[in-house]
Amino acid sequence: MIGESVESNTLEHRDEATLAVGRRAVVEAGRRMISDGLVEGTAGNISVRVGDVVAISPSSVPYDMVREEQVCIVDMSGRILSDNTVRPSSETAMHLA
Prior knowledge:
Distance between the termini: 14 Å
Largest sheet: 3 strands, antiparallel
Low-confidence stretches: 1-9
Radius of gyration: 12 Å
Strand content: 5-15%
Number of helices: 2
Strand order of the largest sheet: 1-2-3
Helix content: 25-40%
Number of strands: 3
Order of helices and strands: HEEEH
């Protein structure tokens, strides 16, 4: 099931700089959506494909408060690969389709 298990250390072989670019893109897009008046609070979701994984906005965190380390990383089957305290968007499956 999407977002059910956290698999620690599965990001070790991936380039941290590349993942950081994906996380930063999610954070910046969320802030732009807020400033442009496109969303309020936690409405909508953002994802960026980074190679064979996806950086996706966290669930229930307002876009103007999301930090890069809160952006979730999931594989293409929806398994959570990042080790953070927030869950990915409840619409992760749609972002992976």
